[in-house]
Amino acid sequence: MRLRYLVLFLFYFSWDLEACSGIALINNTTDFQQEYRPEGPLVMCKFLPKEFIECEEPIDLMGNKTAKEEIGFGCAKFGGSRYEDVEKAKVSCTVLPYIECFGPRTFNRDGIPCIKYSDHYFTTTLLYSILLGFVGMDRFCLGQNGTAVGKLLTLGGVGVWWVFDVILLVTGFLQPEDGSNWNPYV
């Protein structure tokens, strides 16, 4: 009786081993097309979160809206202080190595904000504006050298320009000259 169970077990085990090795051979071929199963463990590559993909930077078209319309992607304008003001672009993304997903590993993702950061920190600029705004230090930091020299020569417009710039900076109307966004790290 034990021998019979042992023979059945070995027969079943050898059959299961052949089936597994056959599947392994099929998965290693390049011409095998799998069918996507939504209830399966693999997610479509284009639906992966940003932590699992690497995207290129948006292309800077420097205000050329016709070039954006012709090629279909890129940023004609960078920056903006409100969500509605920020332009969105299409970029090419690639899935990171060792991440399993279904579908092409390189794809286009739409809705990437056209934001670039430089060395402009809001807190530092605000402190410069409060402490040294009468000599135009805040305008020098923002890259607005012409108005900074005027502010320096008039000692902050005899204090009026100085206070006015602090208010403009706090309300968000005074931005860096190069169109970049404030760096979020202090």
From TrEMBL:
It comes from the Eukaryota. It is a multi-pass membrane protein. Residues 119-167 form the TM2 domain. Residues 1-19 form the signal peptide. Pfam families: TM2 (PF05154). Coiled coil: none annotated. It is found in: Membrane. The chain crosses the membrane at residues 121-140, 152-174. Its main location: membrane. Keywords: Glycoprotein, Membrane, Signal, Transmembrane, Transmembrane helix. Belongs to the TM2 family. PANTHER family: BETA-AMYLOID BINDING PROTEIN-RELATED, TM2 DOMAIN-CONTAINING PROTEIN 2. This is TM2 domain-containing protein. It comes from Xylocopa violacea (Violet carpenter bee). The lineage of its organism: Eukaryota, Metazoa, Ecdysozoa, Arthropoda, Hexapoda.
